[in-house]
Amino acid sequence: MTTITSGRVLTTRRLSHFIGGRFVEGDGHTLENINPATGELVNVVPVADAGVVDEAVKAARRALEGPWRRMSDHERASILRKVADGILRRFDEFVRAEVLDTGKPASLASHIDIPRSAANFNSFADQVLTLSTESFGTATPDGAGALNYSIRVPRGVIAVVCPWNLPLLLLTWKVAPALACGNTVVVKPSEETPTTATLLGEVMQEAGVPPGVYNVIHGLGPDSAGEYLTRHPEVNGITFTGETKTGVAIMKAAAEGVRPVSLELGGKNAAVVFADCNLDRAVEGVTRSVFANCGQVCLGTERVYVERPIFDQFVARLASAGAALKMGDPFDNTTTMGPLISKSHREKVLSYYQRAKAEGASVILGGGTPNLSSRFATGFFIEPTIWTGLREDSVVLREEIFGPCCHISPFDHEDAVVAAANSGPYGLATSIWTENLARAHRVAAGIEVGIAWVNCWFLRDLRTPFGGSKQSGIGREGGVHSMEFYTELRNVCVKL
Ligand SMILES: NC(=O)c1ccc[n+]([C@@H]2O[C@H](COP(=O)([O-])OP(=O)(O)OC[C@H]3O[C@@H](n4cnc5c(N)ncnc54)[C@H](O)[C@@H]3O)[C@@H](O)[C@H]2O)c1
Ligand SMILES: O=C/C=C/C=C(\O)C(=O)O
């Protein structure tokens, strides 16, 4: 294994692992990171074998004995704020890296992904300073009593396994609270989007995060870096965002050694649009929830239910909003929709486009691939697509597609639409569009999800509980809920 002790991540076309505060090359086994907007090579990425993963976990373990865990919460919070500042100082570099890895419009990365990544560090730096614990005065037979109080201790080494759709945002959503609580982490970014996690290693060093506290290993999932990491016996907790079937595999790995897991998984989210909604706001919100990030947002909408009196009007307006999306160069400010993440993901989404037709859908918009000029003709672009006319039990209405597409169904009764929204195995998020306050509260309570938005979508307050019901996940992160996952409570009982 070669060690590179300095060197800027992005000046080379070859990424490294980041272990124990050093950029480390692997044994020569690599994968290619492809720009989905063009099909061109972004960089070559090492693939960690079991030995490299072990080295990273050991570096994280050693760092638990070092200064990080012994620092006061104030000291750690202050370093995490420097990490946030470091991301903002190198804002353009992060935006560029995220855009090359994902193909998403630079306007999106600079409004959402990168600012939110910095905000995650600031938010959890605040959070750790406002944590409280419980305490009880306990009666004893001698009358003197006892005092019970609890303290929070870090869990230890946390494995952080990330997806490709919002790479740095979702990574920092987990790394920031884990570090704030005094843990050390080994991160496995998605093989599709390895760059910003690596670049963050430089920012961590510049901010004064001690070596071994933040480690990054690259590679694939099954029988590769992801599996070796989650099976590693010296990992004390696993936090994962990604597909439900991967969550199942990770939960099995975590069972060995009885390690806690936090799982943020897939969805098949419903938007429910009542006839008394503010139509302009509903169309704008549902357009974003269906097409943002080319439909690759776990919270995105793939099932839209519209009350019958406004059904035709809503379908026409969503179709015209979808048709107005502009695909092409992600660095062009007028581009509003990027490509899918990979050739194979485009094949998967296109198979659902075929399936919808086979199941008898009316194709209102799209349904295929666009003809783009020059460089972007070889990218993995796909048309924004809208269907109507499918039965509730069709495959296209039950499985997560993760593309820029939705089906729109009419409904007549509130109870029926709540039942439709609740059908299926997932329960991540919903959005409800109505000006009737009582109904908004009732429907939000009736739909089985972790996150219900009323007259908005993806409006985030980082202190709120975030996660999914049913097969959309286990546990909640955000605010104090993150702190609960990334620490263990220890009760101290003092006889007075
Ligand atoms: N609930 C949420 O908050 C949330 C947020 C974003 C994305 N998602 C979901 O993520 C999915 C898209 O992301 P994806 O395709 O990258 O997910 P994925 O499950 O394919 O991969 C996610 C990560 O897991 C790793 N991995 C794969 N198999 C593994 C295994 N057996 N053991 C250990 N690691 C393994 C991958 O290498 C990658 O780093 C969608 O289903 C989406 O709904 C959920
Ligand atoms: O694709 C999924 C989006 C997840 C978003 C968050 O985890 C968040 O906003 O904290």
TrEMBL record:
Protein name per UniProt: 2-hydroxymuconic semialdehyde dehydrogenase
Enzyme kind, highest EC tier: oxidoreductase
Top-level taxon: Bacteria
Oxidoreductase among keywords: yes
Residues the record marks as active site: E264
EC number(s) from the headed UniProt entry: 1.2.1.85
Keyword RNA-binding attributed: no
Gene Ontology molecular-function annotations: oxidoreductase activity
Family: Belongs to the aldehyde dehydrogenase family.
Organism: Bradyrhizobium diversitatis
Pfam families: Aldedh
Alphabetic keyword roster: NAD, Oxidoreductase
Residue ranges constituting the Aldehyde dehydrogenase domain according to the UniProt record: 23-492
NCBIfam families documented for this protein: OH_muco_semi_DH (TIGR03216)
